[in-house]
C-alpha cells in the first residue's frame, strides 16, 4: 500500500467536510459572495508566498538531484502557474499585485504557515513533503469534485478557479507532491510514518479553518491600527 493510501484513510472525513463547506459549495454553484472571494484571494496570495518557501526548503534538504527537481518543479508551478490565477482575478477586480502583497495574514493563516515552516525547518525532506501535501492534494480534490458536480460553468464567476484546480497543470503538481512523499517515506519506521501522518492530518484541519476564515472574512479578533 502506498503511504498516500494510508493517509487518505486518515483525512477522508475532514476532506469530505470541505465539499460541504458553504464557501466551497458557493464556488461550485457560483453563489459565493464576491467579498468573501476577495478575502480568500488576498489571504491566499500571502499564504502562497510562505508556502513557496517550503518548496525551497525541500530543494535544499533533498537527498538527491531527482528529488531536488521535484521540489523545484512545484516551486515553479506555484509561483508562475497557480499565483497567476490570483493575479488574473485581482486584475479583474482592479486590485494591484502590490495591494495583494500588503495583506495582513489572518490569525489562522499565520498559524497555518508557521506550523508548516516550523516542521519543514526542523524536519527532513520527507517532513517538508508532508507539509506540502494536504494543500496541493485537497485543492485538486475540491477542484475535481466541483468540476464533476457543476458541468456547466459558463455563467459561474469562479469558472477559472475550478478549471485551474481541476486542470492538467495543477493535477500534475499534485501528482508530484504525492510521488515525493511516497518516495521519501519509503522504508521509514512506523514511528516516523506516524509523525508524517500527524502533519498531514493537522494541515488538513488547518485547510478547513482556512475555508472558515474566508467564509467569515476573519482577520484578527482585535483590530489594531498598525
Ligand atoms: C490555503 C491553501 N491551501 C492550498 C492551496 C493550494 O495550493 C492554496 N492555494 N491555498
From TrEMBL:
GO biological process per UniProt: thiamine biosynthetic process; thiamine diphosphate biosynthetic process
Statement: the UniProt record of this protein carries the keyword Hydrolase: yes
A Gene Ontology term for the protein's cellular component: cytosol
Its EC number(s): 3.5.99.2
Reaction(s) catalysed (UniProt annotation): thiamine + H2O = 5-(2-hydroxyethyl)-4-methylthiazole + 4-amino-5-hydroxymethyl-2-methylpyrimidine + H(+); 4-amino-5-aminomethyl-2-methylpyrimidine + H2O = 4-amino-5-hydroxymethyl-2-methylpyrimidine + NH4(+)
Pfam families in the cross-refs: TENA_THI-4
The Thiaminase-2/PQQC domain, residue ranges: 8-214
A GO MF label: thiaminase activity
Amino-acid biosynthesis as UniProt keyword: no
Pathway: Cofactor biosynthesis; thiamine diphosphate biosynthesis
Keywords: Hydrolase, Thiamine biosynthesis
Alphabetical list of CDD domains matching this protein: TenA_C_BhTenA-like (cd19366)
Similarity comment: family membership: Belongs to the TenA family.
NCBIfam families: salvage_TenA
Assembly, per entry: Homotetramer.
UniProt function note: Catalyzes an amino-pyrimidine hydrolysis reaction at the C5' of the pyrimidine moiety of thiamine compounds, a reaction that is part of a thiamine salvage pathway. Thus, catalyzes the conversion of 4-amino-5-aminomethyl-2-methylpyrimidine to 4-amino-5-hydroxymethyl-2-methylpyrimidine (HMP). Is also able to catalyze the hydrolytic cleavage of thiamine; however, this thiaminase activity may not be physiologically relevant. Therefore, is probably involved in the regeneration of the thiamine pyrimidine from thiamine degraded products present in the environment, rather than in thiamine degradation.
Protein name per Swiss-Prot or TrEMBL: Aminopyrimidine aminohydrolase
Provenance organism: Jeotgalicoccus coquinae
Gene: tenA
